[in-house]
Amino acid sequence: MMNERKRNSLQVMVLIQLVLFLQFKSTESASTIALPGCQDSCGGIPIPYPFGIGPNCSLSKDFNVTCDPTYSNGTPTPYLHGYFPILNISLSLGQARVGGLVFSQCYNTTTKKEDHTSWRWNFGQRLWYNTEKNKFTIIGCNTLAYLQLDLRDHSTVGCLSSCDSLEILSKYGSCSGIGCCQTAIPKETSGVTVWFHERNNHSEVYNFSRCSYAMVVEEAAFMFQTSYITTNKLSALVATNVAQLPLYESQSLPVLVNWVIENTACDIARTKKSSYACRSNHSICLAVDDRGYICNCSEGFEGNPYLDGGCQDIDECANRNPCSTPAKCHNLEGGYRCSCPFGSRSNHNNPTECDLNIALPIGIAAGIVAVLFLGIVIYVLLERRNLSKVNEKYFQQHGGWILLEKIKLNQGFGFTIFTKQQVEQATNNFDSSNILGQGNKESNLEETEILLGDRSHNDIEIVDTGYYFNIDKEAEESIAIGR
């Protein structure tokens, strides 16, 4: 009984150790995105390194992220630089999508003046607005707003929107100048200041358009609505001061921000081993315009190239079978291979597809023909060999070389060819009385060379020489007899 308890306890311990080992291996194989010991997400949004939450978790202060656990009905929300709600971060593109800032100018019916918000924000040297996908956008009637790019030289871009009545707004309202205006942002815009021209006010249109709005927004994510003018939809997105920035809902108006690791070219960065950010063995350095570089995983790998071992092999066969039927997919480190079944071959233009291997059936057919031809040749050669043996046999039986010598010796003499039937007729069907030397012994053989046959031995004898050869009764043989 005691031994059984010990055995059960030992089995339980072994099972526990096995479970812990499998959990460890699973954790070890999982791809990590943040530095060890650092929080890797906030509110379900992944925060990959070089961004980081908390002290010593980001590459630099430009990538600092704060996680507010109380924002948006208790759901934690990550903020870039403490102010911009993070919607997502792309390591491969070097981009972050964040909630944009909305500035406003509203007509105050009491003071008969415009109340507006205006202040400047600068992302720094490593982050800047994506000038290809973002647009400077203003919404409102009789509105002129400016986007100042640099406080030192006062470089600005502006946009004008007008609409004299609600009917015109409802009928023609669009981001082409009626109710809304959009314009491009100059390259390398890291910081902006937005303000409204004071001469344009809403005193004449405040009954349907009391406020105007200006923002930098991702063009593809923005769709103009006349309700933005006629209602207070955008009012909740306006921050009247920096302290209020984390308190407004801005995820509906995103803006794309580009970033680089360092303002250094790849060839120079690689020489600085201590600061070179592409840490994974399967990572590459990518130049971003003239701003610096980012890191990507090599082709066939995925993960975080900024961490040691961060890039893991992609199992293309398991995730998405790239091989077309009937090809079979084989995963390789950093890639895959498609193999084709018997009777087909890989398409030269598209290795993921298989084509009918026409050369194979042709080759098989040619091989069969070759084998048949060889067999026929061998058969003919064997038959010729057998025929030669038969000819040699009959040649020897019918006189052979002796007959040939006889013919040579008797050159100039004629020879008559007798068939079997002629011999039978001449010998009275091989009558024994016609056997030479058995009957009329006075026959003069030298003068006539009479041909007699022995029916029992199938022999014909040339008396004057004593030579003889056999005749096969079953064949239509011919024989030459000299006379």
TrEMBL record:
A GO term for molecular function: polysaccharide binding
Key word Disulfide bond present: yes
Membrane topology: Single-pass membrane protein
Keyword Phosphoprotein: no
GO CC annotations on file: membrane
Signal peptide limits: 1-29
Domain EGF-like: 313-350
Major subcellular location class: membrane
Transmembrane segments: 358-382
Pfam families on file: EGF_CA (PF07645), GUB_WAK_bind (PF13947)
Keyword terms: Disulfide bond, EGF-like domain, Kinase, Membrane, Receptor, Repeat, Signal, Transferase, Transmembrane, Transmembrane helix
Protein name: Wall-associated receptor kinase 2-like isoform X2
Organism of this sequence: Carex littledalei
Phylogenetic placement of the source organism: Eukaryota, Viridiplantae, Streptophyta, Embryophyta, Tracheophyta
